UniProtKB/TrEMBL annotation:
<dbReference type="InterPro" id="IPR020006">
    <property type="entry name" value="FlhF"/>
</dbReference>
<keyword id="KW-0472">Membrane</keyword>
<feature type="domain" description="SRP54-type proteins GTP-binding">
    <location>
        <begin position="187"/>
        <end position="378"/>
    </location>
</feature>
<keyword id="KW-0282">Flagellum</keyword>
<keyword id="KW-1006">Bacterial flagellum protein export</keyword>
<dbReference type="InterPro" id="IPR000897">
    <property type="entry name" value="SRP54_GTPase_dom"/>
</dbReference>
<dbReference type="InterPro" id="IPR027417">
    <property type="entry name" value="P-loop_NTPase"/>
</dbReference>
<dbReference type="InterPro" id="IPR003593">
    <property type="entry name" value="AAA+_ATPase"/>
</dbReference>
<keyword id="KW-0653">Protein transport</keyword>
<keyword id="KW-0342">GTP-binding</keyword>
<keyword id="KW-0813">Transport</keyword>
<dbReference type="Pfam" id="PF00448">
    <property type="entry name" value="SRP54"/>
</dbReference>
<keyword id="KW-0969">Cilium</keyword>
<keyword id="KW-0966">Cell projection</keyword>
<comment type="function">
    <text>Necessary for flagellar biosynthesis. May be involved in translocation of the flagellum.</text>
</comment>
<dbReference type="InterPro" id="IPR047040">
    <property type="entry name" value="FlhF__GTPase_dom"/>
</dbReference>
<feature type="domain" description="AAA+ ATPase">
    <location>
        <begin position="186"/>
        <end position="332"/>
    </location>
</feature>
Amino acid sequence: MRVKKYTAPTMPEAMKHVRKELGDSAVILNSKEKNTKGFLGLFKKKNIEVVAAVDPSPMQQTKSNRVKEPNVNFQLDHQPSLNLKQPTQEPSSHDQDLIKEIKELRESLKDSSQNSNYYPKPIDSIAYNLKHLGIDQDTIQELMEPVLTEYYTNRKSQDTSAYWQIVKDQIFHKMESATQYEQDARSKHIFLFGPTGVGKTTTLAKLAADASINQGLDVGLITLDTFRIAAVDQLKTYAKILNLPVEVAYNHEDFLQAKEKFTDKEIVFVDTPGRNFREDRYIEEMKQFVEFEDHDELFCVLSLTSKEEDIDDIYSKFNGLSINQVILTKLDETSHLGSILNLWQQHQFKIAYLTTGQDVPDDIEPPSPQRMTDLIVGDQS
């Protein structure tokens, strides 16, 4: 058996090399995607690595000079099992080459199953921890690029603290852009959107309390969430405690009348229905119901206790309303916050506020790059 490894940019190209050298009778034993490290870890390219084998013409053997063939058992998971028994005579050069090739194949397959990222040991430990924190593989690969550069230019140092700092610096830089939200001074109507259960009404009360108590602004409240009686009662309770006027709008005409009543207010917070965000017609209905003005502020409220796939879907749906800033809630109810970085990488939204509990108005804060970095990676050393 002749075993050989081929590397090419694509599988069809790799197969061309296999057929050219081994012929059409060649068998593919294993294939995998592999990144070339490039210079100092930079300019990596994705290649396909293929291990192929072909059984050449059998050797002519005589009864007096026959050597027992090595017993090679390729199992279904492509992990070869080699059982070399003591031959009656010294193996021929052909057999020695065969044994060598099979050993190399075994090591190749073993490495491919145990180390899929091909990172050096100290770098691999960081990548493993980032994955455990909920950061996806594409983002990890991006974060590892400058880390690998440092590794090879610093004589392959095993001290991971410097590498962790490089990771944190990158995340900090990303979060600088993510936290650059500034409210438009021309904005008067602030809308909060989001599905049921994300803490939309409580968050609206926190924002209203901060505007009224801490900023001294004249505030009004409007709720469109008439599908749930509890939501109306909840906002009315907050309004009574904060001594703020509240209007309930059941239709478009009610909403226009409520806006008219609050023309003298400096800022008006609007609570929207927490309905099934997966229904496309909901977004169109909201556009017709409200008729947004140019300087209206629209926030998407996202709960960090939701699955990352659901958060992504929620934001994508509500982004049809020209939302570009989010409020992240229930920060205190989850421990894995890598999804924040994954979602930001994809949508590039502004993070306006973080909320951590039910207390009004205390449990809300504007984010900072350092705060976000600490939330995403924690105290790694």
